[in-house]
Please model this.
Amino acid sequence: MTDSSASKVAIIWSVVVVLLLGVLMVFTIALQPRFYRSPDKAAPLDQDWYSNVFDPAKRVAIPDLLSHPILPTKVESVPGSRGAGEDTNVSFEGRYPKFPSENLLYEIFQSDSTGIVTLPDGNRLNISAVAIALPTDTEWEGEETPPEKIPDWRDPYTGESLSFSPGDPLWSQKRAVSAVRPKLHFRVQVEGDAPIRWLIPSVHDAQTKRSVGAVSGPVYKGEGFFSMDLEIWHQTALDVGVEFYFGDPEVQTLPVKKGAEIRFGDNAIVQVKDVFPDGYRFVSWVGGGSRYMFHSRPPKEIQMGMALQVWPPCNTQLIDYEIVGTKEPHRVYGSYGLVGYRFPKGMKNVPEIQLRRYPRLGRAKFHLPTIPRLPEVSNLFASPISKIRIKYPGNLASHAADAAEVKYDRSISSSDLPKSKFPMILTDTTPAKIFVQIEEMSGQTLYFDSNEMEVTARKPPGLLERVRDWIQNRLRKWAP
Model:
C-alpha cells in the first residue's frame, strides 16, 4: 500500500470513528435529564479559583510601602445623609493602585498522609473533629433561625462518632443550625506554642474544585472551632484551606487621637484619620471601596469609633490589636485600606491600643475524604434537600444553583415570582425540582447550559448544533 493510500485509509477510519463517537454522544445527551450536572467535572473558572487558593507556585510577595507607598487621603464633613447633623467622608486622593489577589499572598502548607500540617515555626495543625448540622436536626417552623444544637462530632477520616468528657465547655457547646444549608463544623487542633491567629477558612469540592463554603465565624486564637455554611447537599471529598497569620509579631502602641500614626518599618503604616467619641451608626463603601462615609447619628447604645488607614491594605489580614483590660485581641477589618471601626460596647475614652503585626500569612490545606451524613448522587441537580427556608424570591434560584454547583443567569427574573409565597419552606426537594417550580410560578422556560455551567432563561445551542460543533472540532484536531 502506498503512503497516499495509507493516508486516505487513515482519514476514512478517523471520520468513521468520529461519526460513531458523535452518534454515541447524541444518545448519551438525549438520555440525560434536562438538568444534569456531573459530580466530578470541574468548570474552568472553578479550576482557576481553586488553583489561586491552593497552588504554592502562584504565591506572590506581600506588598509593602516600598512597592506601594501610602496613598494620601482627605477627611471632610458633609451634610448628614438623614437630614440632621454631619457625616464624615474619608476618601483616597489619586489613582487607587492595583494589588494582587489576597488569595495569592498566603504560604501554602499541605497536610501529610496522616492529615497533619507542620509549620516552619514548629506548630502542628490537624483537623481532629468534624460535624454536619442539617435544617431537619431541630424543630422549627417558619422561624428564620432554627435552635442551636450540640453537633454530632465525628472523626474526619473514619466517620466514627467521637466521645468527650462530660461537661467539656468546648465539645458540649451548642452550635448553629442553618435554615438554608447544611452547616459544617470542624475543629483544628494546635500542637505548639508559637503565636498563631485564625482567619476565615475556605472549603472546596475536591472533585469539581468549586468553592462551596459560605461565610464563616472563626474563633480567634487557641483551638480552632469553625462553623460555616456548606453550599452543597451531596457527598464528596472536601479540600479545606484554613487561613491564619503567624510568626513573631512586632508590637507598637497607637494613640487613639486624630492624626496619630505608627510604622512597622517598610512593611506597613497605620494612621488615625478621625475619632468619634460618641460612635457612629454605620459605614458606607462608596465608589468601589475607594471612599468611606461615617454617618453621624450614633446607635442607641453609644460606642466609641474611629477611622483608620491601614496601608498596604493587605495588612488588615496581618494586624490585631488589644485594649488594656480586655481578655481577647480584636481584628481590624477592611479590604481597601480605609477601615471604619467601632469599639466593643462599654469601651469609652480609650486612650490607646496596642497593635501587633504578624509577618506571615499561611493557609493549611487539609483533604477530608467524606462529609458525614450527606448522600452520594450521580447528578448534582438531584441532590436531596431535606428542608430549606427561602426568605426572598431572589434567593430561590441562587440556593438551587449553589446546591447543584452551577451559576444562574440574571435572565431568571425573580420579579415574576409571587411575593405572597415568601418566606417559603420546602421539604424533600432537589435543585431540579426547585427550578421546575420557578418555571411554574414565573412562566419562564429554563435551560442548563453545560458549556457555561449555568442555568438560564436564554436557550443555549441545541443538541444537533452541539454535536455538529463537537465533530467539527475533532476533525480539525485529527486532520493530518
Observations:
- The helical segments are 3-31, 44-54, 393-404, 431-442, 463-478.
- The longest strand covers residues 124-133.
- The longest helix spans residues 3-31.
